[in-house]
Amino acid sequence: MQNFKLVFIVSILSILLLAACSETDEKDLQPKITVSILPQKYLTERITGNNFRVSVLVPPGASPETYEPTPRQMRDLANSLLYFRTGYIEFERTIFKNVQEQNIDLRLVDTARGMDLIAADKVDHGDHVHLSGVDPHIWLTLPGVRIQLKNMVEAIIEADPENKDYYLYNYNTFKDELNELHSELTEKFIDLKRRTFLVFHPALGYFARDYGLTQISIEQEGKNPTPANMRKIVDIAREKGLRDVFIQMEFERDNARAVARELGGDVIEIDPLSENWMENFKKIADKLYEVLNKK
Question: Residue 6's pLDDT is what?
Fold first, then answer.
């Protein structure tokens, strides 16, 4: 009887192991797309469904501004058909250079192509424009995401033309959802008690531009503020009746807490890098509306 039980258990384990190996092999055989950040994974999969395996370079909780891809990720990237870059995160430039130097057969897609980017300086040369100090948070704007999706779907169809109709259907369905949400938010943010908000890291510049808002950042050019700048920020916030401070999950909170305490407000956590991009975009909008509509 004991031998029978042992044989039965070994058989079950063997079946489970074979199933797991089969599933792993199937995933390995899928064509692959690599993206920089988690929100891009959501956007990509809304178009591709399960037809591609999507790999993400920046893991949950890490900051794109300081992240360095591992050698294993670079090898994984080299086996991808497409790489969707946001275009203006620092480590993406290093990847672009490495791919070119190693002559890797990989299509690099700048998803920001055609967007009206927020930049510290724009120099128009007629046939092209030089930008510097570009706000890299291009996934936090509904009109901008529509442009990114167009760039993505064109590259996906070129990589897999047999499923063109499927990808176009997914793209158009998702685009309609974005148009509807943009209309709702445009109406929602028309009449507010105030139109300025305080953030630690300036991640919501595109969102602010889309709905006629203004963000004031505690962080200065990617660095913590000096005591003098902190004092200046507190004075401006008081003048405008601001109390609460928005902060991203991956940033330290000491300076944000100090400003909020001085103003008699709260530190409000947001997660612009959440993988569930649509749900998270709505959460950020709701939190902003609540703060801006406070008495």
Answer: 46
Residue pair 37/56 in contact by the 8 Å Cβ criterion: yes
Q: Please, what is the average pLDDT of the chain?
A: 86
Q: Is the pTM of the predicted complex or chain greater than 0.70?
A: yes
Contact 47, 69 (CB under 8 A): no
- Considering all CA atoms of the chain, what is the largest pairwise distance in Å, rounded to the nearest integer? 85
End-to-end Cα separation, the chain, in angstroms? 75
- From CA 6, how far away is CA 218, in angstroms rounded? 64
SS3 of residue 49 by DSSP? coil
pLDDT at residue 126 above 60? no
Cα distance between residue 252 and residue 270, in whole Å: 13
Pairing outcome for strands 267-270 and 129-134: unpaired
Q: Which domains does the chain have, with CATH numbers?
A: 26-185 (3.40.50.1980), 190-292 (3.40.50.1980)
Q: How far apart are CA 33 and CA 113, in angstroms?
A: 18
Count Cα neighbours of 10 within 13 Å in the Cβ-side half-sphere. 6
